[in-house]
Amino acid sequence: MENVLNFLSGLLIFALMLMGMLQIVLRTLFRNPIYGYIDIVEVGMIAFALFSISYIMREGGHVRMELLVGFLKGRALWIAEFISAAVAFIITAILIPYSWTYFDRAWSFGDSTIDIELPTWPAKLVVPVMLSVLLVRLIIQMLGYLRLAANPDLPPVAVPVMKSVEQQAEEEIEGAR
Questions:
Q1: How far apart are CA 105 and CA 128, in angstroms?
Q2: What is the pLDDT of residues 78-124, one digit of tens each?
Q3: Model confidence over 132-161: pLDDT tens digits?
Q4: Which residues contact 45 (CB under 8 A, 6 or more apart)?
Q5: Dihedral Cα 58, 59, 62, 65, nearest 10 deg
Q6: Minimal CA–CA distance to 100: which of 74, 124, 73, 70?
Q7: Apex CA 36: angle with CA 32 and CA 37, to 5°?
Q8: For position 59, what pLDDT does the model report?
Q9: How confident is the model at residue 65 (pLDDT cuts 50, 70, 90)?
């Protein structure tokens, strides 16, 4: 599911880029821009920003304090990672009901954008749904960290593994071939 959502996010970004290009061409050559372009971009940004959040967490591509965690090894590393994931879990669990309330208010009041009156509730629904997907990802990772904290000799499963700069460069070189 995370791969599909990440792919959809990429498609949305690509579509937004095409629409931006079309907006520039129409505005420059024909003096006729896309009506409601700003509103469409505002609503679309929510989706492509959040569709990939769980995928990024799975891959370990999120912003992290690797300078601090990078010095840890074995059980201490996995315990620190578990604490980090647990804090993210708590914050995400707190945000879900509030983002649902925000969606519900937009749904109830018929909230829309200013220019073309595009309904905002679909974009606002994306937030609690994608945060829920992230919550599941965090549960999976916390279980993986607990497993590794109990036995650091096991191979890492369901957790992102920090890679050295050399490993990252080698993977990028292999991917380019």
A1: 13
A2: 999 999 999 999 999 999 999 999 999 999 999 999 999 999 999 99
A3: 999 999 999 999 999 999 999 999 999 988
A4: 16
A5: 100
A6: 124
A7: 80
A8: 85
A9: low
Is the CB of residue 85 less than 8 Å from the CB of residue 149?
no
Largest CA distance in the chain: 66
The number of helix segments (H) and strand segments (E) in the chain equals 7, 0
Provide the 3-class DSSP secondary structure of residue 161: coil
Band of residue 63 on the pLDDT scale cut at 50, 70, 90: low
Query: Mean pLDDT in the chain?
Result: 92
Buried b (16+ CB within 10 A) or exposed e, 125-138: bbbbbbbbbbbebb
Residue type, 126: V
Token pair recorded at residue 140: 């999976």
Would you state the structure tokens that stand for residue 25, as one six-digit string?
């061409």
Query: What secondary structure letter does DSSP report for 112?
Result: B
For the purposes of burial, counting CB atoms within 10 Å of the CB of 41, is it exposed (0-12), middle (13-18) or buried (19 or more)?
middle
